[in-house]
Amino acid sequence: MTSVDHRSLPVPDSLEGERVDVAMAQLFGVSRTRAAELIADGRVQIDGATIATKSERLMPGAVLDVEIPQEADPLEVVPEIVEGIKIIHDDDAIVVIDKPVGVAVHPSPGWRGPTVVGHLAGAGFRISTSGAKEREGIVQRLDVGTSGVMVICKSEHAYSVLKNAFRQRTVDKTYHALVQGHPDPLSGTIDAPIGRHPGADYKFAVMEGGRASVTHYETLEAHRFASLLEVHLETGRTHQIRVHMSALRHPCCGDLTYGADPTLAKRLGLTRQWLHAVRLGFEHPETGDYVEYESTYPDDLARALDVVREIH
To answer: What are phi and psi of 287, to 5 degrees?
Structure first.
């Protein structure tokens, strides 16, 4: 979303004969490059006539009118109800949600879609103000393309307690992943450091010098082309399960970013990785009681699993 800043000034005598882009830089504080863009977009007028070139010369006393679009802050939380987000649990300390695919947890540069914090704001939830402005109350994250259960803190005390619990790895995070092939062994632990991919900044990879990352998995179902795994995360690195399974040559079905077979993905009707946060367990930050919350498979993942089960 953008707003438009309208500015209008007479050309002073000191800028007589000056190029319009140079004059705009001096009068309005925009760069000459930005001035050229505004001219090309038809947003600059002299005495009511739209100008076509940045090299046009100015006469003193002429009125220079400029429209400057103001980009919204990409980190601003925009309150809006997001279809598909379900409230699993809500009390004075925490709110537990079931996040659908296609929703980011919080705003970030380059993301223009819906967010969890935007939904909570739109639905009238007051969440903790701890943490960076765009991710206040957030103690964990799920990828945009990953669905499932997650917790957000409403009180400052809950934020402090749960942030520490995630840091100390005392939170039980359980995922189900449908991966290609059959991992060998059928159950095991992947202890391999993860860092940003050297060739693509949107990806991550197992690499020397990366951050310590530990993933435990066990096979729940083994089918002809794929296996359903239960995965427990000891650490919480970005894309951790996807990166570790890809490193084992058993990427999540549908995860084309990390080497999944596009033909199989199409056969299963997948447009994202088959990965779902099914359970989240922790000591409640106020009562100290152990609590556990669950999320069932969304329709697209359930359908894909049914297809895999039927392939003989």
So the answer is: -90, -25
